Amino acid sequence: MELDAGVLALVWLAAAALVVVRPAWRFARYPVTAVHEFGHLVVALAVGGRGARIRLRADTSGLTTWRTTRNGRFRSGLIALAGPGTPPLVGAACAAALVGGQATLGLLGLAVLVGIVSVVVRNLWGVLVCIALAALCWLAWRQGAVATEVLLVVTATVLCLGGLRAVAEELTSLQPGGTSDTQVAAAALWLPARVWGAGLLAWALAGAVWAAWRITTVV
Question: Beta strands of 16-110 (E only): which ranges?
Fold first, then answer.
């Protein structure tokens, strides 16, 4: 790793601030939402969905739609849980690529993810978000190894902590008859929405702790 311990600590603090500080979170949530919708997309296609479309809205929310000839409670629940479960997973993967000496491969993976989302996004704001994310990947690649590692550390932190915050915010705003991911999962998979939310919180926390631990072991 090119980053020394002091610089890494500063990068972590800055990345964490993007999630914790409300004005910064307003912008940091866009990549979290993009990866969230990517999770819905991948699982929807895996269980037989077709014609998937993504919308990334200016209020940082998102929506993934698809067509399917097959119905099923289990499929619906799995697709619903895949969204909030994906940001911590991708964040942990970024950390794994970094500590494994594959920072360039990790950057390529992020670029491919952004590329897939950009192909299926169907609103102007979503296109602008994808352009901004692609530009960050391109700038990191142009600036070399240190910039690539910084981007991976920031991405891992924002996706893991941001995924944690997004689920917490969803759980605090549940409304009767709502259609949040945890409520859709609850309707399809029987357990209450707050139980699924607690599981997703634990998942995101585990991803954040694991990513932090793995990165610090190679500094």
Answer: 50-56, 62-67
Our count of domains for the chain comes to 1
Nearest to 25 by CA among 136, 163, 203: 163
- Give the tokens for residue 36: 């969230």
What is the chain's pLDDT, residue by residue, as a tens digit (219 residues)? Answer: 677 777 888 888 999 999 999 999 999 999 999 999 999 999 999 888 887 899 999 999 999 988 876 667 888 899 999 999 999 999 999 999 998 989 999 999 999 999 999 999 999 999 999 999 999 999 999 999 999 999 999 999 999 999 999 999 998 888 887 788 999 999 888 899 999 999 999 999 999 999 888 877 766
Tokens of 169: 């915010």
Predicted TM-score (pTM) of this structure: 0.94
Element holding 157 (H helix, E strand)? helix 145-172
The β-bridge partners of 121 are 54
SS (H, E, C) 116-130: HHHHHECCHHHHHHH
- Indicate if the alpha-carbon torsion angle 29, 35, 38, 42 is positive or negative: negative
- Tell me how far CA of residue 147 lies from CA of 17, 124, 150, 155, 159, in angstroms: 19, 29, 5, 12, 18
Q: How many CA atoms lie within 13 Å of 79's alpha carbon, on the beta-carbon side?
A: 26
Q: Write out the residue range of the structural domain in which residue 188 sits.
A: 5-216
Between the alpha carbon of residue 86 and those of residues 4, 5, 71, 108, 180, the distances in Å are 29, 28, 23, 18, 16
